[in-house]
UniProtKB/TrEMBL annotation:
Active-site residues, Swiss-Prot/TrEMBL: 110 (proton donor)
Pfam families, alphabetized: Formyl_trans_N
Catalytic activity: N(1)-(5-phospho-beta-D-ribosyl)glycinamide + (6R)-10-formyltetrahydrofolate = N(2)-formyl-N(1)-(5-phospho-beta-D-ribosyl)glycinamide + (6S)-5,6,7,8-tetrahydrofolate + H(+)
Protein name, as recorded: Phosphoribosylglycinamide formyltransferase
Top-level taxon in the UniProt lineage: Bacteria
Lineage start: Bacteria, Pseudomonadati, Verrucomicrobiota, Verrucomicrobiia, Verrucomicrobiales
Task performed by this protein: Catalyzes the transfer of a formyl group from 10-formyltetrahydrofolate to 5-phospho-ribosyl-glycinamide (GAR), producing 5-phospho-ribosyl-N-formylglycinamide (FGAR) and tetrahydrofolate.
Length: 192
């Protein structure tokens, strides 16, 4: 199974996927890593692992993922022979060009128990709301913000002494365990 990874930041979830592949617990290879952030450490991680990388040109848009950029992303992923796309800290909404090219083959990991706390900085939202638990969700991507069908979730308690940072650290531990597991589950479902 050939994976395409889209990310904007440090790439810790991409690293967890790469580690699962190296450990033999995930039968896959990362074919291509694309980022909309030329400074994203995800690109450095991929280069160190010998994985091809590329930049997604969003033409000066701060948050929008323009159709032209999505079409270029589709072309790059298809040229790399990607079977499944994993969003790993990718901070743009995926829409029609990408969704149409890879129906039910785009996954995202979100640092909350969806449908609670969609969007940015979900761990901060959980602290601010006084939640007693949080966690992470791997879900299929649809055209909404963190609204696609849930594949797997993992719970993390929120302790009274937690800060947004300490909660986020505990959630990330679960993310790194859960994402490869969810990819295996989807691969089995799709026969990849």
């Amino acid at each position: 199974m050939r994976l395409g990874i889209l990310g904007s930041g440090s790439g810790s979830n991409m690293q967890a996927i790469l580690d699962a592949i190296a450990a033999g617990t995930l039968d896959a290879e990362i074919a291509l890593v694309l980022s909309d952030n030329p400074e994203g450490y995800i690109l450095e991680r991929a280069k160190k692992a010998g994985i091809p990388t590329g930049l997604i040109d969003c033409r000066g848009f701060k948050t929008k993922f323009p159709d032209e950029a999505q079409a270029e992303t589709v072309a790059a992923l298809q040229a790399a022979g990607v079977d499944l796309i994993c969003l790993a800290g990718f901070m743009r909404l995926v829409k029609a060009p990408l969704l149409a090219a890879f129906p039910d083959r785009i996954l995202n990991i979100h640092p909350a128990l969806l449908p609670a706390f969609p969007g940015v900085a979900a761990w901060k939202q959980a602290i601010e709301a006084g939640a007693s638990e949080s966690g992470c969700t791997v879900h299929y991507v649809d055209d909404g913000m963190d609204t696609g069908p849930v594949i797997l979730q993992a719970k993390v308690p929120v302790f009274p002494e937690d800060t947004a940072e300490t909660l986020h650290q505990r959630i990330q531990v679960e993310e790194h365990r859960l994402y490869p597991e969810a990819i295996r589950k989807v691969a089995d479902t799709l026969g990849l």
